[in-house]
Amino acid sequence: MMEQATEQIPKSLVYEMVGGKPIYYQGYKDYLTGNKQMDEIMGSSKLQALIVAELIYLLRSFYGNEYLIFTNELGLRFGKNAWRAADIAVIKSDLVEDLNDQYLDVPPELVIEIDTKADLQEVRNPLGYYHEKTEDLIQFGVAKVVWIFTDTRKVLIAEQGNNAWRIYDWEDQLEITEGLAIDMKRIANRGK
User: Fold this and answer.
1) What percent of the chain has pLDDT over 90?
2) In sequence order, what are the residues at sequence separation of 6 or more whose Cβ sits closer than 8 angstroms to the Cβ of residue 70?
3) Whole-model pTM?
4) CA 175, CA 190: separation in Å to the nearest integer?
């Protein structure tokens, strides 16, 4: 019965695929019942969009042309039926063979996530989702994973080879990568 229901859900509503099982966009049931349009489910809030825009500007200025800065829920393919989405990913340009319509299959150096668009109601352990996704990214080879949470105004930073993940307040100066500090409070207040 579940397989039949899954087949009726459009593939465009799959946010990530983990172990061959889909994780859908938050609000996908509202779309299926006709209560929301597709763009209402996949869209970002004003605050999330501002954070992404500001971070891309800072990252592009810092890294220059030797790196590519990907955004827009870039797909990171871990293997068959296993991929995750990234709000922002930073990778050396020479590691990307060609730009095409495929997911990235080599690990970026840095992944930044702003909240999540995943529907966590059907995830066995909703709090574990963040831990599992972070672990997946690090095992894939991502050197640093940064989670920015807009509701709690916290930032979690996890690094390859460091089991001590750190949590910061937005008021703290955060070194997003060596030599680049960000001020989340300033970024969030820029839109005011």
Assistant:
1) 51
2) 86, 88, 89, 90, 91, 104, 108
3) 0.88
4) 19
Residues 38-88: pLDDT tens digits? 877 777 888 899 999 999 999 999 999 999 999 988 999 998 889 899 999
**How far, in Å, CA of 55 to CA of 19, rounded?**
31
The token pair that represents 102 in the structure block: 């495929």
CA distance 100 to 39: 24
Rounded to whole angstroms, how far apart are CA atoms 141 and 123?
24
Cα 153 from Cα 148, distance rounded (Å): 8
More confident residue, 167 or 31: 167
Count of H helices and E strands in the chain? 6, 10
**Whether the Cβ atoms of residue 174 and residue 182 lie closer than 8 Å to each other:** yes
Phi, psi of 173 (to 5 degrees): -75, 125
Closest to 62 in 3D by CA, of 37, 87, 41, 90 = 90
